[in-house]
Amino acid sequence: MARSSHTVEAVVQAVHRQAGTCFPSQVTLLALWQPEGDWLWELFEDDRRYTQRLPYYPEGIIENVLHGEAMSIPDIFAYLDAHPVRVRRLLDVNEVILDVGARKEQPDPSARAMLFVPLEVRGARVGVLSIQSYEAGAFDDTDLEFLSLLAQQVSISLEHADIREELERLTRTDMLTGLPNRRAFYHDAPLALAAARREGKELRLIMLDVHEFKRINDGFGHQVGDAVLSTLGKVLRQTVLLPELAVRLGGDEFALLIWGMDEQLDQLIARLSQNLRAASWPSGLGPIRLHGGVAHPPLGENVDEWLSLADARMYHAKRQRLVGSPAIWGLDFGDGLR
Q1: Are 116 and 60 spatial neighbours (Cβ–Cβ below 8 Å)?
Q2: What is the Cα–Cα distance from 224 to 190, expressed in whole angstroms?
Q3: Widest CA span of the chain, in angstroms?
Q4: Among 241, 173, 254, which residue's Cα sits nearest to residue 210?
Q5: How far is Cα 130 from Cα 133, in angstroms, rounded to an integer?
Q6: Is-above-0.70 flag for pTM?
Q7: Where are the alpha helices (DSSP H) in 180-302?
Q8: Is the dihedral of CA 192, 194, 198, 202 positive or negative?
Q9: Half-sphere exposure in the Cβ direction for 169 (13 Å, CA)
Q10: What domains lie within the chain, and their CATH numbers?
Q11: What CDD domains does the record point to (predicted)?
Q12: What gap in Å lies between CA 313 and CA 207, rounded to an integer?
C-alpha cells in the first residue's frame, strides 16, 4: 500500500488485491466522505472497478459506521429482517453501482457477509472500508479485528495519496487562472492524440490570445491585466467541459483541446461568445476580444508542430484586425482544415 499510495484508486486497488489473500472476500469498498456532503464510492469486485457519487442517508450502514463503530454482518438477508431501511438503502446502492458496469445483464451475486470499519486521517473520520463475501458467515471476529488494523494502514496511505494528489494538482495548475498549465498540456495532449487515432474521433486544437493585451497591461497596469486573465480563466472553465481541455500556456495565450465535428466546434464558439459577454470584466476596458486559430492534428504525433500550426492560424486571424462584438473570433479555416 505504501508503494501504491500515489492515488486513492491505487490504494483501494492494492487493498482489494491483498484482501483476497487475507480474507475469503470478493468485494472491496472504500467510501470517502466528500466536502460537498455526499459520498465517493470506489468499489472493486473481482477485476472490475466501479466509481459512484452517492447521497448521504442518516439511516445508512455506511453512515452508521462513519459515526460509530466497526460492524460485522454475517448475513445481509438476515440483517435485512431486523433493519430493513438501512439495508434496503445499501442494497439499492450496490445495484446502482453494478448497473454501471459490464455485468448489467447478468444476475447480481449479492454479497452476503460484510465487514465495515471507519477510517481516520489526522484524527478525523473520513470514510469507511468494507470487505464483502458472497458466502454467508464468511468472516469471524478475528477478521474484523484484522480489518481494523488494516484500516489504520489504509488511512496512512490515503493521507499520503491526498498529499501526492495535491502536489500533482499544484504542479499542473496555473495559479492565476485555475486552469491546467503548459506542463499539463504536454502531458495530456499526446494522450488525447493517441485516443483520437485509436478511436477514430475528431480532435482539434484551438490557440487563443487576448486582443491587444499589451495595451491593457501598459495602459491599465499589470493588476488589471491579471484580472482580465483570471476572468478569462473562469469563462473557459465554465465553457469547456470534460473531456475537453482548456489550458493557459503562458502570458495571454491559451489552448483548447476540442472533440467532435464542426457542429460541436460551432456550439463551443457560441457558448464561449455568450459567456465572454456575460462575464464581469474590469471597468473601463471596453469589449474584451479574442483571436483564435484552429488546427487538426498533424500526421505525426509532434505536439509542438500542432501548436505551431494553430498558433500560425491565430496570428493570421489577428492580422485581419477584426472588430465588432465583445467576442471576436478570427478562425482561419484554411485549406485542409475542414
Answers
A1: no
A2: 34
A3: 76
A4: 254
A5: 10
A6: no
A7: 182-199, 213-220, 222-239, 262-278
A8: positive
A9: 8
A10: 8-172 (3.30.450.40), 182-319 (3.30.70.270)
A11: GGDEF
A12: 8
